[in-house]
């Protein structure tokens, strides 16, 4: 996973970063509201190597605290899908808290996924059908405290601004999860050109309710 994290870091121009744990905790991010405190974030020299993977000797050097929240659910999604495929299950849909992988069996109805309204979880703005691919969704309102949230722009070290939600389709769960995180945190204006470099289909909703959709994101929108 460290090797994959490094690849995603490079492919997203540094916007996907698993080394933001100390920064998040310094902003007061924690499992419970009672444990969140206003602490000064920890900074590191920009030139410092974050981690190094020595595959030949099965060793890892860590210079930062890491966390796999940016693509951990996507990784788990792929593992479960592989188990179902191995067991010859042909028709299934796995939902890992907003990260979804679905496969349509022969003669079965397609899996239709609702796209949650970024301001009202009881509503949907549209739907999309997926088969043999993964869909990841991210929104800042899911983990928010005060004026902060958990989706950090790796370039600025601050909670990302300009995006309300992203819905992204990719070949695998880990790709969908990582790329959705990277594009969301890059912001609306920077996220669009970043997405054009990546193998994704997506819908991006700005904080001003502007919507950008890649031509191949085959969603049906509700009135």
**What is the CATH architecture descriptor?**
Roll
Number of helices: 5
Please tell me what the overall shape is.
Answer: globular
Specify the structural class.
alpha+beta
Q: How are helices and strands ordered from N to C?
A: HHEEHEEEEEEEEEEHHEEE
Helix content: 10-25%
Which topology does CATH recognise? T-fold
Features:
223 residues; alpha+beta; T-fold; 6-stranded antiparallel β-sheet; 3-stranded antiparallel β-sheet; 5 helices
Task: List strands and helices in order, with pairings.
Layout: H1 2-11, H2 21-26, E1 51-54, E2 59-62, H3 72-86, E3 92-96, E4 99-103, E5 111-116, E6 124-130, E7 133-139, E8 144-145, E9 148-149, E10 152-153, E11 158-159, E12 163-170, H4 173-186, H5 188-196, E13 201-206, E14 211-213, E15 219-221
Antiparallel strand pairs: 1-2, 3-4, 4-7, 5-6, 6-15, 7-12, 8-9, 10-11, 12-13, 13-14
Describe this structure in a few short sentences:
The chain is an alpha+beta fold and 223 residues long. The protein contains 5 helices and 15 strands.
